């Protein structure tokens, strides 16, 4: 590789519905690795968070616009040779396909946090420091969710495990993916 070439990079997207612990795990992951961190909710176009706080999903074109903004952030970081971690719902396969298109030197790897609706609702109720999201949003997101397919790069982790176990598994899977895909 010449000094002009950008090295291959890995971009971990911690995905799942509200209450799954995406932000908590993404922050811990970034702290442990020193990778660039992005909370995808911070990139929502104006008005989208208000729609979510009303318990609804934004219109599909609005979600696609938002995901393109997230993808472009990943692509910019990849162009600089930075690995990243992002907390992002990435609920559907077509949404993840947008994120996957972050550039030739960018491999996107998903850590899907999942749990039962009751467990997730309880976690949402006990959130500290984040904007309250209504139970209706969780229901809408679960209806929209498409789990990772065997062809997608990623791992699925049950949120009933401890934060430390989730972090260990996410780190191990990401480091394996980095060796396998981002050489």
TrEMBL record:
It catalyses: D-gluconate + ATP = 6-phospho-D-gluconate + ADP + H(+). The keyword Metal-binding does not apply. Its EC number is 2.7.1.12. One of its GO terms (molecular function) is gluconokinase activity. Pfam families: AAA_33. Keywords: ATP-binding, Kinase, Nucleotide-binding, Transferase. Pathway: Carbohydrate acid metabolism. GO terms for cellular component: cytoplasm. Belongs to the gluconokinase GntK/GntV family. This is gluconokinase. It comes from Corynebacterium jeikeium (strain K411).
